[in-house]
Amino acid sequence: MADSTEHSSKMNREEFAGYLRRLADEFEKEGDIDVPVGNKSVRLHPPDSVKRDIEVVERSSILRGSKEAIGLDVKWKKSKKSGTSKESNDADEAPDEERSGTDGDGAAAGE
């Protein structure tokens, strides 16, 4: 069973930078992390090492205009033994992920 929590919102660049800093602060500390998602917080259990994928998209369309986006995935596997996490070598099997980025309208994705 997979649980998923999603939230989308628009924010200015300063607010988005603050959101990323808060997320970075959570990853720098030892143990569990609290990921802000909308009006709540989700507790995750990352290991010392995680897999990171980043995607940058630049699209130009005559009818729809230009659009740019950043997608960031951070993934890991939870250990079956202790309930703690361990690094995933196969990111597609990772149950936990955090997605941050902006869509072309400046809205934060996966927040």
UniProtKB/TrEMBL annotation:
Disordered, as annotated region: 29-52, 73-111
Protein known as: Amphi-Trp domain-containing protein
Ranges of residues in domain Amphi-Trp: 6-84
UniProt source species: Halobium salinum
Database matches in NCBIfam families: amphi-Trp
Annotated Pfam families: Amphi-Trp
Listed InterPro entries: Amphi-Trp_dom
Protein origin, superkingdom: Archaea
